Predict the structure of MarR family transcriptional regulator.
Amino acid sequence: MIRAATALGRITSRVHKREQGLTSPEFAVLLALGGESAKLTSSDIVELTAMDKTKVSRAVAALDQRGWVMRERATSDRRFEYLTLTEAGGVALGHLMPKIFEAETAVLKGLSEEERNGLEAGLTGLDRAISH
């Protein structure tokens, strides 16, 4: 399982590195901010991505430098900073995702339909088990 996850991670890493020059932590932060929540704190991203605080902080700084992330201090508690994707960050993510899906699809084509269904069911169960 670890070997397969690492190999798939390398494949997606090549795509986001080639297409946008992003490190894996930068891509993970971009992806987290592109999710359903409009605003996240760095702590939220640490929890969502299972990365350590330092990696998240460096990734946010790099994305901020590119103009892909906007930082906004919380009015109720100035220690907290909310992060959102800028329009440019959303465009970059929108450009990347079809290429990531294309790379993942190419890998999955090597599996039978039964294997793909089993993989999907297994990953769904694993995600549920990890989340609780």
